[in-house]
Here is the input.
Amino acid sequence: MSLAHLSKSSLTRPSLPSLISHSMMVRKMASAAAAVAPAPQPHIPTILNASGPPPGHSVTVGNLQTFILPDKVSDTEANRKLGKALVEAWQKDGILQISMTPEQHSLYKSANYASRRFFGKPYAQKAACVDSQTYSGYIASGEELTDGIADYSEIFTLEAIRPGALPSL
Here is the structure.
């Protein structure tokens, strides 16, 4: 029996036996169809080398300029040259690398942790961290415009901060 042979009355108010036989018939038809043609499998892309370029594309690996930062930045000719070189690398390549000593890496990790802790605070606490004299402090998402378009990142701007200018973070 095919689905075309079901009468309109059997579709509007089927009895329990007809539902059971209809269900069994559908199962048998599905089994027969599966035996003839295997069910289509979902497309799972094959990733041959996820760290490489997409198939059919070539890539030229650039040499990023790598900088070593001093332990302490002060107003010296060497530090001014380093600052200019950092800016030039960024302007030329759009990216640069910083090599860190274990101590510098530890400071970086601490700063990153403090940043996550600060930006995880409620808005009212973050908004209280603004110094109107230096324009330093918290800028909420959407408050700053870049080329007339709202910048949706949260920012904490640092300028020349005087001791005690901002509440303790």
User: Anything to note?
Assistant: Residues 129 and 168 are 9 Å apart (CA to CA).
